[in-house]
């Protein structure tokens, strides 16, 4: 990719050393807004690499946490109207780790999953060991029938995406929240394809629809509209503490580099205040 002229890039062939490089236009990138080349983001990255070097130097629980990680998590929590947030190495890891951790704290939870959910969510549900029930994409009648079949006191979690990338459909957020409250269920919403794009502050469809405070757990990515790298989960302080304590995808891996956290922080702030 060429900084400053995106979506232009140089194509150098496929495993062909004799191929002549040529300029192409990239229309399949998920850097939707070109934030990966935004001058504000690049400046933040340069400053961070001069201040903190390249790698994080450890896991988050040992020596891998810097001020950039802490400030980024604080910014994400505020953006999603949540008490706390935790950053992972990717959106995939964020979903898998957070959902698998639910099984540690609520082993009898029923996970009610939309059929259009991403592989990362499916893996997280599988690794949680919890009972799983699937409803057809955005089919609220089927969802309500499933919810109605369980006692109110039984822990339940509705797991869905705000924007389904393969179908292009958008979840009826308010109606899902209504059902969750009616049947005493938690909500887990993946906003990966929406953060940075929807809402006055780029906090996704939940913000656009005015229901961010009604969604219990929101996951997102820093690698699409924000143009950097990594993923995150925002929720109550208690849930985030549990994720930090039980999620293997957070505990047993090196933290994202400070330069990445700094760039992501700059991007989130830029889009949050750009209107």
Automatic annotation (TrEMBL):
GO MF annotation: an example: pyridoxal phosphate binding
Keywords carried by this UniProt record: Acyltransferase, Heme biosynthesis, Membrane, Pyridoxal phosphate, Transferase, Transmembrane, Transmembrane helix
Entry-linked Pfam families: Aminotran_1_2
Boundaries of every Aminotransferase class I/classII large domain copy: 23-265
A GO-annotated cellular component: mitochondrion
Domain of life where this protein originates: Eukaryota
InterPro entries: 4pyrrol_synth_NH2levulA_synth, Aminotrans_II_pyridoxalP_BS, Aminotransferase_I/II_large, AON_synthase_class-II, PyrdxlP-dep_Trfase, PyrdxlP-dep_Trfase_major, PyrdxlP-dep_Trfase_small
Top enzyme category: transferase
The enzyme's E.C. designation: 2.3.1.37
UniProt-listed GO biological process terms: protoporphyrinogen IX biosynthetic process
Cofactor(s) demanded: pyridoxal 5'-phosphate
Reactions performed catalytically: succinyl-CoA + glycine + H(+) = 5-aminolevulinate + CO2 + CoA
Residues spanning the membrane: 246-271
Homology family: Belongs to the class-II pyridoxal-phosphate-dependent aminotransferase family.
PANTHER family reported in the protein's UniProt record: 2-AMINO-3-KETOBUTYRATE COENZYME A LIGASE, MITOCHONDRIAL (PTHR13693:SF102), CLASS II AMINOTRANSFERASE/8-AMINO-7-OXONONANOATE SYNTHASE (PTHR13693)
Protein name: 5-aminolevulinate synthase
Species assigned in the record: Perkinsus olseni
